[in-house]
Amino acid sequence: MKVREDLSHLPVLALRNRRQGLVKLLPPLAEVLRGSLMERYLTCGHPECKCARGERHGPVWYLTVNNYHRAKENLEKISDINRELLRRERKKPKPEHGPA
Ligand SMILES: [Zn+2]
To answer: What's the gap in Å between 54 CA and the centre of ligand 1?
Structure first.
């Protein structure tokens, strides 16, 4: 499992700049959504099965999505930054309500 980077030492500006850089690395959404759907018929390996005589199991569908892993990695990093920024927002003291 990948170890998450500790972002707590970075200033807010650095976090925002890093997030902006990661957003630029994301492939266009249309490209991420593009993929291919493949129909497959399989054999299970049992010699007595009907598939051994040519009547294969299926259809089994496989969906492959372009750039999925790269986009996922960067989205996770962006989420980590957002989480850190939100954590700091919550730590800020609430503004006092003075007389209007
Ligand atoms: Zn079979």
So the answer is: 9
